[in-house]
Amino acid sequence: MSDQIFELKGNLFTLSVLHLYSTDINLLAEQLYVKIAQAPKFFEGAPIVVNLIEVKNSTIDFVHLKSLIERMSFNAVGVCNGSDEQHKQAKAAGLSVLNYSQDVKSEPARVEPNTSVVEKTVYLPAQIINGAVRSGQQVYAKDRDLVVLGAVSHGAEVIADGNVHIYGTLRGRAIAGAKGLENAYIFCNKLEA
Known about the structure:
Blueprint: E1 16-19, H1 25-38, E2 47-51, H2 62-71, E3 75-80, H3 84-92, E4 96-98, E5 127-129, E6 138-141, E7 146-148, E8 157-160, E9 164-170, E10 173-176, E11 186-191
Parallel strand pairs: 1-2, 2-3, 3-4, 5-7, 6-8, 7-9, 8-10, 9-11
């Protein structure tokens, strides 16, 4: 019997996605500087994937793009939703190509003029976590706020479709408004992310 020294397994990881709406790298640099200045340590070393769906038919300097992302202290993982040519150029620049199509926009359904559609999101009472969220844990509060009565450790992640309240120190990652709620906020006693 041989001693096995490794094992290959699939796993899921949470990665930040940079949705690119323009190929102007200088403008991207300006706007990224502003975003990162809001919480410099929060993004440090964060793995990031660039979603190309909105610039699929554009020419992109992937070497320059990768350099910019790494200069901003992100970890450039790869790209998704680009054209075949963009994927080829991204690979040549040392970026991986991920098969990810969740954000691909489909044509909206046709609605008859006399039909009115009202979409209402129902939010549930807040999900409460009594204690700390430890490294490696991920907590998701679907259609509700999330309240953590403790710290969120480095390497932990808390996500809510509503607001996130942390009555402790935030060292990990927190995402509020995960389904696109624009007025969702993150509240914490102390930020060390």
